[in-house]
Amino acid sequence: MTDTSINNQATTGTGTGDAEFGDYFALLKPRVMSLVVFTALVGLLAAPVDVHPVIGFASILFIALGGGASGALNMWWDADIDRIMKRTRNRPIPAGRVSEGEALSFGAFLAAFSIVMLGLAANLVAAAILAFTIFFYVVIYTMWLKRWTPQNIVIGGAAGAFPPMIGWAVATGGISVESVLMFTLIFMWTPPHFWALALFMKSDYHEARVPMLTVTHGRRATRLHILVYTILLVSVAIGTGFTAIGGPVYLTVALLLNALFLKGAFDIWRRNEAQAEGDGYRAEKKLFALSLVYLFGHFGAILAESTLGQFGMGGW
Known about the structure:
Blueprint: H1 3-12, H2 21-27, H3 30-46, H4 53-77, H5 79-82, H6 100-121, H7 124-144, H8 152-156, H9 158-161, H10 163-172, H11 177-201, H12 204-207, H13 213-216, H14 219-240, H15 248-269, H16 273-278, H17 282-309
Helix pairs in contact: 2-4, 3-4, 3-10, 3-17, 4-6, 4-7, 4-10, 6-7, 7-10, 10-11, 11-14, 11-17, 14-15, 15-17
């Protein structure tokens, strides 16, 4: 097959017919799925109710498939802008390896399958939250907010914050203050995480006409927003240390990570574009990388507190 025919198929979304297993796996956004799986697992294990290992494993598997379904449906809808943005143009659909129709069918099947199976394996509350999560990410965020408002990440961040609530519901059959706290932690973390990425991705969002804050309000305003949301995030993260899912281990981790994150946000805020371009957006990339460690660190600490609590050693 010639390069020209491949490019034409990538543009029209017909696919080359040469898709491999790895291409369909890539549709699931495996890096995002790892965050979904980990936070859902923490929510499940931190709950004050024991879950049979088989039910727990099956539930996490179906939650992961639901998260993957959201990713596939997101790629289906965003195929047009994925072809424009440098960081996404090699995804299976814009690269022409998978057609848009195949991605839609694949994502829709996984969504329905994961919801039904989670309901059967765990309970209807967990399945309902998973269904709402998929709906929120695909319809509310991807189809509406992402291309309409610079608050897309702020509001749309709720989609990525639901997994620990689903895990908690698998164990308890309901929602509690603790699961809402875990939701809030991810919800407040999402804006500075993505805005840091938007700063060093430079023109990607502008060329794709996605109204990211860097495009609509400018890079100076984005830096200020990162600092403000980081301050709010710090208050939520440290405050969680004094709740039922917190404790001395969590608080120690939270104090360290939040001090680093706040310093990183402050460093970004006080920089101008000339300084950022001069060192290749080093501070922005550093904060983005730290944000990943930040979230895994906090949820790892919640899991540690829960594990210690089982031996009468965790909590306050």
